[in-house]
Design brief:
- With 205 residues, the protein is α/β, with parallel strands linked by helices.
- It has a single domain, classed as 3-Layer(aba) Sandwich (Rossmann fold).
- Helix content is 28%, strand content 28%.
- It has 6 helices and 10 strands, in the order H-E-E-H-H-H-E-H-E-E-E-H-E-E-E-E.
- The strands form 2 sheets. A 6-stranded mixed beta sheet has the order 5-4-3-6-7-8, with helices on both faces. Strands 9-2-1-10 form a 4-stranded mixed beta sheet.
- A hairpin with a 6-residue loop joins strand 4 and strand 5.
- The protein starts with 6 loop residues before the first helix and ends with a strand.
Length: 205
């Protein structure tokens, strides 16, 4: 495998670790899909986590503007689920620091812990394991900018867009592979029949 694996090699690695599965899955919101993706199942293995983190870091190093600020770069995740990627990226890049946001105990809104807030003028790279709707990453970006910090890029292991995925405009965006899942209300569409078999498996994600 190359230092930066191909998208298909990343897909095969996700399948081998159980992080990517095809079938018929029912999610808590009632939607059904032909694909189940949980990158944490891949990142639990040290060698896999290292391979994916290094590969993503090399994509960032190819960007001259980001490469020039790596020593002062803060890597920020929108929730604890993105921390394995954030720490792996920090180690691979030798970046400055890692911190994260988390849901408030009173609501679903994100917040920073005391003394973990961004500083004015700080350069921030947002990192997560997967980008689907981008809702939390959009909220995180707004929070970071409220503190006067600058978001310089966004990096995820897997880009899985859907019709509700937020746009991040011209922000540099890096990912290792792009997946396109089919979502439906329950009745299997013809496009999914080749990948779906059996009854729906209820999953949490």
């Amino acid at each position: 495998m190359q230092l930066i694996p191909t998208e298909q090699e990343v897909v095969e690695l996700l399948k081998q670790t159980g992080a990517l599965r095809y079938g018929h899955f029912e999610f808590p919101n009632g939607l059904h899909s032909d694909m189940y993706l949980q990158p944490a199942l891949a990142m639990r293995h040290y060698e896999t986590a290292k391979l994916l983190s290094v590969a993503l870091s090399r994509k960032l190093r190819a960007n001259s503007e980001i490469r020039a600020i790596i020593p002062e770069l803060s890597i920020v995740a929108p929730a604890t689920g993105g921390l394995p990627v954030a720490y792996g990226m920090c180690e691979a890049l030798r970046a400055h620091q890692v911190y994260w946001a988390e849901n408030s105990s009173q609501s679903d809104e994100l917040k920073f812990r005391p003394h973990l807030e961004p500083k004015a003028g700080e350069k921030v790279l947002m990192v997560d394991d997967v980008l689907r709707t981008g809702k939390k990453l959009t909220e995180l970006k707004a929070m970071v900018e409220q503190f006067g910090a600058q978001v310089v890029g966004l990096a995820v292991l897997v880009y899985e867009p859907n019709p509700e995925t937020k746009s991040f405009g011209n922000l540099p965006f890096f990912y290792l592979t792009k997946l396109e899942a089919l979502y439906f209300d329950g009745e299997e569409p013809l496009e999914a029949s080749a990948r779906i078999a059996g009854e729906a498996e209820k999953v949490w994600i």
